[in-house]
Structure formats: C-alpha cells, structure tokens
Write a structure and sequence with these properties.
By secondary structure, the protein is an alpha+beta fold. It folds into three domains: 126 residues, no CATH class; 213 residues, Dynamin, middle domain (Four Helix Bundle (Hemerythrin (Met), subunit A), Up-down Bundle); 112 residues, PH-domain like (Roll), CATH 2.30.29. The chain is built from 14 helices and ten strands. A hairpin with a 2-residue loop joins β9 and β10. α4 packs antiparallel against α7. It is elongated, with a radius of gyration of 45 Å.
C-alpha cells in the first residue's frame, strides 16, 4: 500500500489497489449475478408455494386437537367429502385437471348404456337360419293331422317368446358392466382416505357389500322384466308392423348417413383374407360412417381399398389353435362378395381389448355383431318345408311379424334396462352414502380406532409442512436480500462518487506540480483537464526518492471502502 501511495506512477490509482477494493469489486459482481438469477428462482419458489399452500391448509384444518367431538366431527366431514366426490364422479360436476385426461365413472357408464349394451343386444341372433325351420315345425305340430288354411297365432307367439328369452343374457351382462364401473368409482373415491387406512378399508367394504345387494336386486328386476315381456305378446301396439313408419325411418337414416361422413376410428388391423398362412399383413384402417378404408401405413397416402358399409354385418371367427390374436369377419347379408372375390373380410386385432373397441366402433357405424351361426341344419325340418308353397308363404308372413315385434321389444329393452339399473343401483348407492353410511360407521365397535393415521401418511404430511415452511423462509430471505441490496447499492454509489472526486483532485494536483518540476517522471499527455474541477490550495511537496508526492496525511484521511456483506 505504501508503495502505491508513494510511487508517482501509481499513487493516483492507489484507491483501486489492494484486497479491500478487490473484495468490494467481487462483492458487487456477485450481487449482480445473484440479482440476475433471483427472479427465475423466485418464480419457481412462488409456484411451489402456491401448490403446497392448499394441501398444507387442508392438513392444518384437519389437524384438530383430539378431545370431545373430534371423532364425530371428523367422520361427518370425511363422509360428506366422500359423498361429494362420488356425486362428482357420477354426475360429472366439479371437474378437475385430472378429469381432462380420462373419462370419469359417470361418462364410462353412459358409454355402456349408449354403445356397449346396444352392441350386446345386437349380438342376439333374432333372424338365424334355424328360426324358419322352427316355424315350419311349430306350424305343423300345432295343426296336427288337420289341414290348416290360416296362419296360426300360436306359432308366432312361440317363436317370439323364444327370441325374447335370448335378451336375458345381454341384460344381465349390462348389469355386470355397470357394477364393475361402480366398484372402480368406489375404489377411486375411497383412495382419498388413505390417510386413515382402517377407515378406508371399512368404508370400501360397506359400499361393496351394499353394491352386491343392489346388484342381486337389480338382476332380479331385469329378469322380471324379461318374464313380463314373455307373459303377454301385445300385438295391438301401434308400432307393430308399421311398414310405412319403418320405411320412412329407414329412408331418413339413409339420407342422414349420406349427408356427412365422419371418421369414427383409426388404427392398425391385420388382414387375413387372401393371405397365406403366417403371412397376414397389417394395414392402417380408417372407419367412417359410410365406408371402411385401409392404407399401407399411418400416413394415409397410399389407399389400398375402400369398402362401403351397406348390408354388412360382423361375426367372430375361429382363429385356430395356434393363433394368438382375436379375429372377426365382415360379411354381406345378401350373400355378395365383400372384398374382391371373397365373401368375407377377415381381420384381427392386437388384443381382445382392441378388438372390443373396434366392435364398438363398428356398432356406431351401423355394423352390428352376430354370433357364429351353425352351418348344419335339421334335415327333418328342411324336408318338411320343401315343395310346399303355402307353407313357405306362411313362414315368410310369421317371419315379418316376428321381426316387427322384436324391434319393439328391443327398443323397449334399450330404454327400460338403463333406467332400471340407474334406479336400483346408482341412485340407491347415492342414498346409502348420504343417509346410512355415517350411521353404519358409528355402529362399528370402537369407532375411534377408524381415525388412526398411518405412519406413511404422517411422514408425508410432516414432509409437506416442512417443505412449505422452507419455501416460505426462502421467499423471505430473497425479499430481505432485495432490501439489503438496494441499501448497499446506495452506499456504494455515494462512496464511489466521493472517491472519484478525490482521485481527480489528487491527479490534477500531481500533474500541476510535475509540470513545474525539472524531473517529468510521468507523461502528461493523458492528464485530466484541470479546469473541470476546483483545484485545492497548493500542497507542500515531500521528496521521497527524488519524486514529488502528496502528503501522506491527506491520503490517510480518505475513508476506507466498506466491508461487503457475506
């Protein structure tokens, strides 16, 4: 320090030398770097603080002091929240961000009622090949040895009852599908009670047990509906044999079908038609409301074929004992070729779930599934109907009547069964949760043990609260740092201004004295204009090593730089 102060070449910049000035400079640079990085860090901490605030507030609200009324209030609050979550899942209210990723339970049940159940009904073979043979045998057996002139009503009723009885299986299948979805909903809403594992298990058991009881009652009601349809064949229905209305509806549906063509499903399927063994090729299929097209790849540039959907139906096919993929086939109900010279278009999906989704898409396009029909026919019935034109006309008449009446029954079934399921299962389960669940929880011996918090949940809660406090403390530190930095910057600017003025005065005095000296040790070509500052009184030079320097007393009076904060 003495060297820089006493040397005429460096004494004017002595205030910028040494460890204190280095510390101050590094401190300023570090402060600027921190100020540059703090906004992004502050935004991240504020976002995390908002995420944790709601969860921590719930923890602190629920952290009630154990005492009188604790168990009662806690059970009431938890069951009320469970009821709200169940209603939201069923009715679709109070949507959350997670509800935008997948279908809620109520939407899945609506899909069953709208697509899956009609598809199951459409699988019933109402116009199979055996029905005509059964009609012939029924007509002949009813008449006995008599030669009849008119078509017997008993044959019509007998065949209609046979077809209605086939509806019992898809009806019960619909009940099973809805109950399965309700079990998923129960598991989802009770999963929010994992903080109290014993309470979660008890509530899930109570709801599952009650759901099982309602399932049995609903299946009995659906079976009673089928038996009710079998008990009386109402041929006075206004829609029975409504040829004119049926033709109008068919024409209207055809017009609407050709107005717009909307894409229903896309995906890869493997085509087995016209393919050798183990050489089936996959294509990218596009199903719309009026056609089925397939391309070589998903880019949809090279179209291989486009198939119209008129008069097409779907059936399951035998994929063989070595096949690992589920297969189905499309065929024409009028016996025409479907694809080139082939009567059927055989396709296979990657797995069973994918195949069911494709079947559901085909049902939306108007192509319904039919079960595999038996190829073998009764030789007795075939011989009985051959060569009798009068019998053929009677069989055709009854077939038309059966088809007309079964349309009425199918329409009523599609309307009545969903209402029965919602009334007997969904609504009753909602009533049980809102009215009886809390009472059943209180009826359990030692109900206080239900509110024992799990160790994992306790650790998680403590970790969340600790993280929230840490984030809050970090935000306070950042705010205090901003305040201290503003105060420090004001002090630094004031000190720097005073130091700069003193350095300029010292430099002007030095070069003024050096110009009058015979020894010009410093080049004055880069000196500062002395007219810019007020020159102080001349200082008496001190000769150290033959050079003129300002008095040390003046330099010693200069304030030292402040120590930067750490």
């Amino acid at each position: 320090r003495q060297f820089f102060l006493n040397d005429p070449a460096y004494h004017d910049m002595a205030d910028r030398m040494g460890v204190p000035y280095l510390q101050r400079t590094l401190s300023i640079q570090l402060t600027e770097h921190i100020l540059k990085c703090l906004p992004e860090l502050k935004r991240e901490l504020q976002a995390r603080h908002r995420d944790l605030a709601k969860e921590v507030s719930e923890y602190r609200t629920s952290a009630m002091v154990e005492g009188s009324g604790f168990d009662t209030k806690a059970l009431v609050v938890l069951t009320h929240e469970l009821q709200e979550d169940f209603d939201a899942a069923i009715k679709g209210t109070n949507l959350k961000d997670s509800d935008l990723k997948t279908l809620t339970g109520g939407a899945r049940i609506a899909t069953i009622f709208k697509y899956r159940f009609p598809s199951e009904l459409a699988k019933v073979d109402l116009q199979d090949k055996d029905m005509r043979n059964h009609l012939v045998l029924a007509i002949k057996n009813i008449r006995g040895f008599r030669a009849g002139i008119f078509t017997p009503d008993e044959a019509f009723e007998y065949i209609v009852q046979m077809q209605i009885a086939k509806f019992e299986e898809p009806v019960l299948t619909c009940v099973d599908m809805v109950v399965t979805e309700l079990k998923k909903i129960i598991h989802e809403v009770t999963n929010k009670l994992k903080r109290y594992p014993l309470l979660q298990r008890v509530i899930e058991e109570l709801l599952t047990q009650y759901l099982k009881e309602r399932e049995i009652a609903t299946k009995q009601a659906c079976t009673l509906y089928v038996h009710t349809q079998l008990s009386y064949i109402n041929t006075t229905n206004e829609e029975f044999i409504g040829f004119a209305n049926a033709q109008k509806s068919v024409n209207a549906s055809e017009i609407n079908r050709h107005i717009t063509s909307q894409i229903i499903r896309k995906g890869f399927l493997r085509m087995h038609t016209n393919a050798k063994l183990f050489q089936a090729k996959e294509y990218f299929f596009v199903l719309s409301t009026d056609s089925l097209s397939w391309f070589s790849d998903s880019d949809e540039r090279e179209k291989k074929y486009m198939l119209q959907l008129e008069n097409l139906k779907l059936r399951d096919t035998d994929s063989g004992f070595m096949a690992k993929r589920s297969q189905f086939a499309l065929y024409n109900t009028e016996g025409r070729n479907v694809y080139k010279e082939h009567r059927m278009l055989e396709l296979s999906a990657e797995n069973k779930e994918d195949m069911e989704n494709w079947k559901e898409a085909f049902s939306r396009a108007g192509i319904f599934s039919e079960r595999g029909q038996r190829v073998e026919a009764s030789t007795t019935s075939a011989d009985a109907s051959s060569g009798d034109p009068h019998m053929e006309r009677q069989v055709e008449t009854i077939s038309i009547l059966v088809a007309s009446y079964m349309k009425i029954v199918a329409k009523m079934t599609r309307d009545f069964i969903p209402k029965t399921i919602v009334c007997n299962v969904v609504q009753e389960l909602r009533k049980y949760i809102s009215r009886e669940l809390l009472a059943n929880l209180y009826a359990i011996p030692n109900s206080k043990s239900l509110l024992q918090e799990s160790a994992e949940e306790r650790q998680r809660r403590e970790a969340k609260i600790a993280e929230f406090e840490a984030v809050k403390s970090a935000l306070n530190i950042i705010e205090n740092f901003h305040i201290n930095t503003r105060q420090l910057s004001t002090t630094i600017v004031t000190t720097s201004t005073a130091t700069t003025n003193f350095s300029n005065i010292t430099m002007n005095n030095h070069f003024e004295q050096s110009s009058n000296s015979s020894k010009n040790l410093v080049d004055t070509s880069f000196g500062v204009n002395s007219n810019r500052f007020t020159t102080p009184n001349p200082l008496s030079p001190s000769y150290i090593n033959g050079s003129k320097t300002p008095p040390l007393s003046i330099v010693a009076q200069r304030p030292l730089p402040p120590v930067p904060p750490r």
